[in-house]
Write a structure and sequence with these properties.
Radius of gyration: 14 Å
Shape: globular
Strand order of the largest sheet: 1-2-3-6
Number of helices: 2
Largest sheet: 4 strands, antiparallel
Structural class: alpha+beta
Amino acid sequence: MDNAFFEYLSLKNKTVGAIINRTEYNNTHFIIYTEGKICDSSQGGIFEYFPNNIMYAILDNAGNLLVFNNIDDYHSYISLKNLNIANLHINIKDLFKIKQANKLARDSGCL
C-alpha cells in the first residue's frame, strides 16, 4: 500500500473503488475493489476518474468495500479482523482519459 492511492469510480450509479499501484519498475497495476457487480466490457476498464481523494481501501471477507482516510485506521482494522484481502489485478500500460472512458462506458451500456 505504500505506493498506492485510492480513487472513486462511478459505474451504473454505484460507487466502487480502485487502487492504482505504481511499482518500483514503474508498472501500473489496477486493483479493483467492489461490492456487487461491475460492468464487464471487451474494451477493458471503463472508468471515470476522481483522483483527488486519497484513501486506503479494502475488500473484506464478506465482499464489502471499506475505505479509511488514514493508514493507521486501515492497519488497525485489518489486524483486528484478521482479514485476508482479496483483489483483482489488471495490468494496464495507459489509463483511459475521462472523455474516452465516459464514451466507451455509454456505448457499452455501463453508464
